[in-house]
């Protein structure tokens, strides 16, 4: 899960990491670093899409 360009974590590094995980994918919610606090409904919907 990524927060988009406003996040302090380099998004290209997150994408590269997701590519290395079998069946991995990166979900981006454009809010910055605190995705779970900023948009909790979208965060939990994304978790559900992973089957969690």
Structural overview:
The structure is a single chain. The chain has helices at residues 11-20, 35-38, 40-49. Helices cover 46% and strands 0% of the residues. The chain has one domain. The protein is built from three helices and no strands. The chain is mainly alpha-helical. The mean pLDDT is 93.
Characterize this entry briefly.
The chain is 46% helix and 0% strand. With 52 residues, the protein is mainly α.
Topology:
Layout: H1 11-20, H2 35-38, H3 40-49
Q: What's the main sheet like?
A: none
Shape, per Cα inertia axes: flat
User: Structurally, how many domains make up the residues?
Assistant: 1
Could you tell me how far the N terminus lies from the C terminus, measured between alpha carbons in angstroms? 13 Å
Search tags:
about 50 residues; flat
């Amino acid at each position: 899960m990524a927060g988009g360009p406003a996040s302090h974590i380099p998004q290209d590094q997150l994408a590269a990491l997701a590519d290395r995980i079998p069946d991995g994918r990166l979900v981006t919610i454009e809010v910055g670093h605190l995705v779970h606090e900023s948009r909790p409904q979208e965060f939990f919907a994304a978790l559900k899409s992973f089957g969690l």
